[in-house]
Amino acid sequence: MKIRKATPKDALAIKDMIEKLSKEGVSLHSGALKKQTAGWETVKSTAKIKKQMKSKKYIYFVAEKDKKIIGFITGELMRAPRTTEGFVSDIYVYPEYRKQAIGKKLMAEFARWTKSRNCNWMSLMVYTRNKKGKKFYERLGFDDVVEIMKKKI
Ligand SMILES: CC(C)(COP(=O)(O)OP(=O)(O)OC[C@H]1O[C@@H](n2cnc3c(N)ncnc32)[C@H](O)[C@@H]1OP(=O)(O)O)[C@@H](O)C(=O)NCCC(=O)NCCS
Fold first, then answer.
1. Is residue 39 classed as helix, strand or coil in its secondary structure?
2. pTM of whole model > 0.90?
3. CATH of the domain at 55
4. For residue 146, is it within any domain?
């Protein structure tokens, strides 16, 4: 398994993973929140993925095994009040490859990229109901900072 920077040829595989990630996220919710959480992922077309790949602000890495894409991470440099941070927008590993340290390696690669842009902080959002995702980030040393609450009005 290797982690490498994604190329435009990976755009379709990445789009498929974003769709799977979205479905897993939606399945955690019920009622009005189910509809509300659908499509939170910012990128929905291969054209947009390819456009972001050209920009210095965004980054995509993929995990590849036997020439098959088995996971990815994407994010961007984001201004925060005191710092510019490497913000992880999406990370996904196919279920059959989970718990093999692939997510951890994708996060490490993202951290290296963030540091290479002179930023010393990483941030991300995770659904409160995504207990597994939260455990994953906690294992990597992330702390809770903000809670977003929602209500349909
Ligand atoms: C979250 C996700 C990327 C983790 O990928 P992974 O390759 O399975 O994670 P790793 O094997 O690198 O695990 C890293 C650490 O997190 C822990 N961890 C991973 N999944 C976990 C789980 N479901 N429950 C508890 N701990 C977990 C591992 O035990 C490991 O800890 P260790 O280093 O102390 O052994 C993957 O489960 C996934 O794609 N989930 C669906 C999408 C998602 O929820 N994304 C995150 C929110 S957007």
1. coil
2. yes
3. 3.40.630.30
4. no
Span from the CA of 148 to the centroid of ligand 1 (angstroms)? 22
Closest ligand 1 atom, residue 93 Cα: 39
Residue 145: inside a domain: no
In this structure, the number of other CB atoms found within 10 A of the CB of residue 94 comes to 16
* Domain presence at residue 62: yes
Residue 38 located in a structural domain? yes
Rounded to whole angstroms, how far apart are CA atoms 46 and 139? 32
The amino acid at 44: K
Q: What are phi and psi of 6, to 5 degrees?
A: -75, 155
**Domain interval for residue 90:** 2-139
pLDDT 10s per residue in the chain (153 long)? 999 999 999 999 999 999 999 988 888 898 888 878 777 666 679 999 999 999 999 999 999 999 999 999 999 999 988 899 999 999 999 999 999 999 999 999 999 999 999 999 999 999 999 999 999 999 999 999 999 998 889
Query: 96 alpha carbon to ligand 1 midpoint, in Å?
Result: 12
